[in-house]
Amino acid sequence: MRKAILALLTVVLTLGMATALGAPAQATSAKHSGKKVGYTQVVVAPPVYDLIAGAGITPAPTAGAKAFAYKGTLAARFPITGYRLKGLQIKHSGGLSLTAGASTITVSDFTIDLARGRVSGKVTGTIGDVGRVDLFKIRSSDRRDLGAVRLTLTDTAAGALNATFGVDAFAENATFGYATPRPFSRF
After folding, report:
1. Which range has the worst mean pLDDT, 83-87, 89-93, 96-100, 172-176?
2. What is the spatial distance between Cα 179 and Cα 147, in angstroms, rounded to a whole number?
3. DSSP 8-state symbol, 166
4. Residue 17, pLDDT score
């Protein structure tokens, strides 16, 4: 866990250095400025992607996110819209929907919270409007080729996925994917 936090902390410090060197003031705003200041790439763990595809669940980017095939799995990019150095947070727009038949779950507007070692997001779908919840725990990556840190499911996220799709395949602390923030990179 300590290595994962240090990896993402390096990204936040990079953001702070850029600000000190004259980056736009809105980039340090605690609020979503709506301006893109880079992106975070999330790669779905190959076994999870196989599970999703095998269950007939179709992923799709929403609200400005991008998704594409990547190393035999799926990657998505979410625009970084702001950050807060004081709270060690990186805010994003866009999201991802997962659909199977009439069942859908959409997660969006992610916030990486380094102080807590969590990633939260807004959750809506067949199960209703859940609101903002912790989706992932940030862990050390065991697949650096896929991402700087590993994202494991919270009990809430696993439960929402299982309830939406009528399965019991998702569990707390199971690896969902890998994330790499890329501040100031072209989206």
Report:
1. 83-87
2. 5
3. T
4. 34
The residues, any chain, with a CB within 8 Å of residue 149's CB and separated by 6 or more, are 4, 7, 8, 138, 139, 140, 141, 178, 179, 180
Distance, CA of 170 to CA of 175 (rounded, Å)? 9
Distance CA 162, CA 96 (A): 17
C-alpha to C-alpha distances, 8 to 26, 46, 77, 141, nearest whole angstrom: 21, 22, 16, 11
Taking only the tens place, the pLDDT of each residue in 27-74 is 334 344 556 689 999 999 999 999 999 989 999 999 999 999 999 999
Residue 128 phi/psi, 5° resolution?
A: 105, -175
Number of folded domains that form the chain: 1
* Cα distance between residue 18 and residue 39, in whole Å: 15
From residue 153, how far is each of 10, 15, 60 by CA, in Å? 23, 27, 19
Residue-wise pLDDT tens digits, 115-165: 999 999 999 998 788 899 999 999 999 999 999 999 999 999 999 999 999
Domain that holds residue 162: 2-183
